[in-house]
Amino acid sequence: MPATEDPAPDFAGAPTTEGPAPDLAGALASWATAVTLLTAADDRDDVGATISAFCAVSTDPPLVGVSLMSGSYPAELFGRAEEPVTRFAVTLLAAGQRVLAGRFAAAGRPGARLMLDDVPHRRGPDSGALIVDGGLAALECAAAQVIPAGDHLLVIAQVTGVPYVADAGEPLIRFRRHYLPARL
What we know:
Number of helices: 4
Structural class: mainly beta
Strand content: 35-45%
């Protein structure tokens, strides 16, 4: 039997202009997501950023994914040609860490060490990154792939350690551009 081609999909009514539909940002903001804190030790300073684009990729091998805005300093560190940052930590923030998430989301913020001065934390033995205590869990990671993707940089990383997993707690959730406590 000869191979047949599938008919072209019917995109009638789809936008024909370049770029996303005007309401794409609003639609994506309607996706509730857990909030994490990514930290890395750079040669000059400790760096941190609030990240809501984080996901499990695989358990065997243990991989996670992080999406960073291309113009951000963390993306610059992972994407630079010479001596990129390859090791980092991710803390899955608890609902009570809203203020901490806000600190690390603010533009023009100082180094992570200064912002964690009044917050219990430790340095990860595998990553050398600062790890915040009191979250739901913390992971240490090593970047395996760095992939430019539109206006973001995707980092696929192998999990090299799990410093802690909390026995209980609610996640910090971001929904429609606001942090909300989970209602489990």
